[in-house]
Amino acid sequence: MTKLSKAASIRHFEQARRYIPGGIQSNYRKDASYLPTYISHGRNARLFDIDGNEYIDYSLSYGPSILGHSSEALQTAIVAQAKEMYSNELNVLELEAAKKIVQHVPCAELVRFACSGTEANFNALRVARAYTGRNMVVRFNGHYNGSLDSLIGGVVSDPGNPVPGDGEREDDLFSVMGNTRGRAAHAFHDSYMIEWNDLSALEALLAKYGASIAAVYMEPVMVNMHGCMPEPGYLEGVRQLCDDYGVVLIFDEVITGFRIGLGGAQAHFGVTPDLSTFAKALGGGFPVSAFCGKREIMDAITRTDVIAAGTYNGHPLAMAAVIATIKELERDNGAVYAKMYRLGNQLAEGLRELFACHEPRFILQGFPTCWTMAWSESGRIRNQSDALGDGLLDVLAFSKLLNQHGIMVQTRFCLSAAHVPADIEETLQRAEAALKEFVAGR
Ligand SMILES: Cc1ncc(COP(=O)(O)O)c(C=O)c1O
After folding, report:
1. Interval between CA 117 and ligand 1 midpoint (Å)
2. At residue 61, does pLDDT exceed 70?
3. Looking at the structure, do residues 66 and 76 belong to the same domain, yes or no?
4. How far apart are CA 294 and CA 13, in angstroms?
5. Residue 46, domain extent
6. Side-chain-facing half-sphere of 93: CA atoms under 13 Å
7. Nearest-CA neighbor of 58 among 290, 325, 340, 264?
8. Does pTM surpass 0.85?
9. In this structure, how many other beta carbons lie within 10 angstroms of the beta carbon of residue 167?
């Protein structure tokens, strides 16, 4: 396959930059050569751009489109609801959607909806602080929990008192990507940032500061950077430490939720947090999120001790999307997960063979419905400290080449219910061409 022509996307981008900062709606520190691909429509696991190019899609809109891009069930539910009511009034769908989450997610006894993962995380943090009467939060280097001032980026200069500060370390691309000007001056003062997958680091921190810590906040799989899976016993150890110190354990399942399985990472690994947040796959592509957890903790909202507000929370179109998406995922006892896992494993096997043959420093980590590409000399990355250096730049460059060869990824390969074996075969052919070009260009 020859590289794709993007003339219309380039022209559109030039126009868009005149009216929209950066020409796009969600930005990280982009390199100067960044070119967005403007999509006109999607069918099943394929996307089509305004130049008429076709992509096999593993980005899935950064994760949400778990049913693919033209799910009849989702379209029917949305259209039917739009005909009844498309503005947000208190509606009966909220209860049905909440019940679905309670049915599948181990920690979920009470559920509230919001519109984005960032909002859900903001709310969960507030609830944890209210419940414990404490202030500090433990977060992890390399974990992305949305763009809140207090949760994004940061660098630690004193490991003995790991309160992050503004700035970036050149060899730590997470800090570079999360560094923003305009952050509130004291935003970081209420958090500690340590390495993930290192139980002794958390143990030492809690021993020193446990009495002031409200929450430990983590992605249960470090999906956003390098796709690190939890080390055996790590999540269990964290759970125990949180119990010992009376700290609320929060799993940010914005990506893992309804993607690793119906019950999220907490059901997959058998470790139940106190609170948890969901977005992305939850709504199959609709802007909706949820935060949920143990009744005793979430009751801070019931008592109105805690404000959790939002004009669009529980929006009927979003609720219809949640219900339709979960019903599709539940079908035949969750058979679609078996299919996605099978295809995801085939994809990983093929990609790993290609990497071994052409560039063994590319690795894939994660789980079959969400593989993350990473760069490693040793073949394995456990946490951000294992990934210092500029390897991620190679992953980003290769992702860009994949896009040029008709494969839509960021650094992740997410599977959907709409992927079929022919998609995987074609992906491997396109990926080989991209990989050869990557190697030739170094
Ligand atoms: C793990 C995780 N948490 C939170 C967020 C933020 O979600 P949103 O972009 O919907 O605000 C993201 C987004 O990518 C995420 O991956």
Report:
1. 5
2. yes
3. no
4. 46
5. 7-70+334-440
6. 23
7. 340
8. yes
9. 12
